[in-house]
Amino acid sequence: MLFSRISLLLLSFILVPTVCAQTFTFTAIPDENESQLQTRFNKVARYLEQELGVDVKYVPVKSYAAAVTAFRNNQVQLAWFGGLSGVQARRLVPGSDAIAQGYEDQFFKSFFIAHHSVELVASSNFPNLNGYTFTFGSKGSTSGRLMPQFFIERNIGKQAKEIFSRIGFSGDHSRTIAQVEAGAYQIGAVNYKVWESAVEKGLVDTSKVRVIWETPAYPDYQWTVRHGVEQTFGSGFEAKLKAALLNMKDPELLASFPRLSFVEAENQDYEPIESVAIAIGLLD
Amino acid sequence: MGDKVRFFGPWQRLTAQLWLLALVALLFADIEVISVDPWAELSRLALGVISPDFFATEFLLSALWQTVNFALLGVAFGIVLGGPLALVYQHPFVAASCAMVRGVHELFWALLFLQIFGLSPLTGILAIGLPYGATFARVFHDILAQSPSTTERGLPFNTDPLSRYVYGRLGHVYPLMLAYIRYRFECALRSSAVLGFIGMPTLGFYLETAFRQGQYSEGAALLMLFILLIGTISLWAKKNLIPVYLLAALWTIPDIGIIDGGLLWRFVFYDLLPPGIQGVIYTQMELSDGLNQFYQWLASITINQALPGVFATVILALSALGLSHLVALIAHLVASQHSGSKYRAVAGQLGLLVLRSIPEYILAFVLMLLIGPSMLPAIIALALHNGALIAFLLVKQEQGITPSATYKKRADFFAYEILTRVYPNLMGLLFYRFEVMLRETAIFGILGVATIGFYIDSAFAEIRYSNALYLLAVTALLNVVIDFSARKLVARQVEDSIAHGRSCIT
User: Fold this and answer.
1) Are residues B473 and B377 in the same domain?
2) Which end is more exposed in chain B, N or C (fewer Cβ atoms within 10 Å of the end residue's Cβ)?
3) Is residue A15 scored above 80 in pLDDT?
4) What is the CA radius of gyration of chain A?
């Protein structure tokens, strides 16, 4: 009786018809402060709706990999990707375009930070990291993993796992800071913007943890639009979208990312990211 | 059975073996305590706990509601799946398939379904329902096997098979099964919250972000609500209300969206194919080149990821098993109504509620700040969670025990009268939970401990699904091997312990 009741319920639930209008869907993971995502990015959606004249919806996701999957499966048509996830997404959906990047993303960088017990001084020369414990950020992060690992391996000439006595993936820039500050790892790699805003807000004790090296500049976050939007939303849609993004001037909207403004970008800008990812074995 | 009462009886032997196993595992475990100064971060955490912010989270009520929805629908789906399977569970193929399905953590099922259904609620419901169905199959089967056959034999000769089954078998054990479903519903609430970690709109979505980003006031508030939700299940999950909740769940679950068969096809017949094989089928790769590439891939992933991952997983789970035993014994002593004042028992039981409700992920996160990033935080987190859960079930079970007239609330009386009665159940539960611990190591993989979960998580992050599939298959097989050998081990030691353990779970 119970079984049949529940199975009937389940059946009705699978057969419930779903209606899906042509909604332009996007996703974004900011590199810091993920609180109130839906509320903040709904405002971005309203702005795009106004500029584009189509229904726009924001879908929150938890990871770069989830964003790439949603993009590939056409569950989102536009995404605010990190450098690496953008490259992954455009490889999986050929014909997709990077159309805009943050002003800061033209010359992004990572900081290497060290616990105060580590006897390395801040320098423009690459530090001798041999034998220390080290934490990256999230596994798919450009500024927390990809570029730091590349610079480490290129400068020291060995694989990361041969250099460090222990390697971790903290999962997030603010956790990298917390773990190095607590000494759980001696050294860590962190997005420079996240570090600067943590210092500014007094969330980090700079007598416990300090910057010892900064990477050369590289391109990072960008807006990527999916191949095929012109067929769905009309020709000229991509250009309209690009203009809307570049003209986003409202500081409240920009603070969600957080970026000063958006500037033009194209796929070629991210070729260095792709070759770095291939060099360290993250892409085939 | 034994006519002689030995001092070193079967239970002592089993306990000694358990400890020997755990100690050997600890020898291989990475349990380095890294001296650190965690106080800055811990004081921020403590500040968050004493100043919880219940208004920091957007759509909080919806998140609470969806946590219940996913748990309900997941369990319902699990019953629909596991109920019939329980009837054919004696078939080794069914038993092994179920063990394989159970061996994969809900999070990884969800990551697989995410590739096909996206963030549709189907992903979450299937991720809970599938492994829960496999668990229901096994436990219902064991419960049914315990039901006496006397009634069935007394039924008239021409009774139809369905009535025979319902009146003769099910009637006896129906309350047991219902109680087990109730217990699994609590587990499902936890699973439902944890699925938020990968994007389902449940409490875990916000909980994980809050802790990951150091928003401790928000995190503490969410954790308190979650503990409250679990602690008050008996108040709001009334039997008669369940159909209402189920209907409400169907109405209020987010839109399922369109299911694209093409995605399923592409995922199974393209993404999951290992390198080499994919090349031979979809490009003009020569068969011999393809096989060569496939072999290279297989050798590399087996040697570099699968074997070290399995080793770390087993070591971690065995160490946690020993420590869980200790935690369960102590926690049971503290929270039992037979061992101390009423107030202490209430306080102890509150402590058990908190420890068993906090996701291991959060426990390990805090411990990692305290003692550094070795395997130790994971071992302690697993032991605290599972020890508290076992102690909770024991405390519930011993409500039916009336001690002798001369009983005093002292440790020696407790050990002699109460512990001896619940000990078989304790051991049965502990071995049953071992499978769960093995699966839960996945979570710590995501935190960075190099269990097989770590490599699976990396494979998903790198969008290398064939790697993920291979490692998941290894995990599932590992569970089959452990399931069969644990049953053998316990059954040889104490024949009826499994039955005891099972009735205690209920």
Assistant:
1) yes
2) N
3) no
4) 21
Give the confidence band of B494 by pLDDT, cuts at 50, 70, 90.
low
- What residue of A is the nearest CA neighbor of B205? A62
Nearest-angstrom CA–CA distance, B29 and B32: 9
Helix (H, G, I), strand (E, B) or coil at A167: strand
Same domain flag for B325 and B406? yes
Cβ contact B119–A139 (<8 Å): no
Regarding whether B250 and B304 lie in a shared domain, the answer is no
Mutate to test the interface with A, among B41, B69, B177 (most CBs of A within 10 A): B41
Set of chain A residues whose Cβ sits within 8 Å of the Cβ of B218: 35
Task: Report CA Rg, chain B.
Answer: 24
What is the nearest CA distance from B24 to chain A, expressed in angstroms? 23
Q: Tell me, yes or no, whether B45 lies in a domain.
A: no
Whether residue B1 lies inside any domain: the answer is: no
Angle (CA) B343 B349 B350, round 5°: 90
Question: Is the pLDDT assigned to residue B206 strictly greater than 70?
Answer: yes
Token pair of B442 as six digits? 């996945």
Distance of CA A38 to the CA centre of its chain: 17
* The token pair that represents B138 in the structure block: 């096994």
Q: Is the pLDDT of residue B143 over 90?
A: no
Residue in this structure with the two tokens 């999962």, named with its chain if needed: A171
Question: B155 CB near a chain A CB, below 8 Å?
Answer: no
Task: Tell me the fold of A109-214.
Answer: D-Maltodextrin-Binding Protein; domain 2 (3.40.190)
B291 and B260 together in one domain: no
DSSP conformational letter for B257:
-
Which structural domain, as residue segments, surrounds residue B493? 8-37+275-506
Other beta carbons within 10 Å of B422:
22
Q: Give the residue-averaged pLDDT of B155-181.
A: 85
**CATH match for A21-105+219-279 among 3.40.50.300, 3.40.190.10, 3.40.30.10, 1.10.3720.10:** 3.40.190.10
pLDDT, residue B490, reads 66
Three-state DSSP at A168 gives: strand
Q: What is the ipTM of this complex?
A: 0.88
- Which helix (H) or strand (E) segment holds residue B278: the answer is helix B277-282
Alpha helices in chain A (DSSP H): 2-15, 37-52, 64-72, 83-92, 147-156, 160-163, 173-181, 192-200, 229-233, 237-246, 251-255, 271-279
User: Is A109-214 in the same CATH topology as A21-105+219-279?
Assistant: yes
214-253 of B, contacting A, C-beta below 8 A: 214-215, 218, 243, 246-247, 250, 253
**Among A155-169, A226-240, B35-49, where is mean pLDDT lowest?**
B35-49
Give the model's confidence band at B366: pLDDT under 50 very low, under 70 low, under 90 confident, else very high.
Answer: confident
Q: Which pLDDT belongs to residue A5?
A: 53
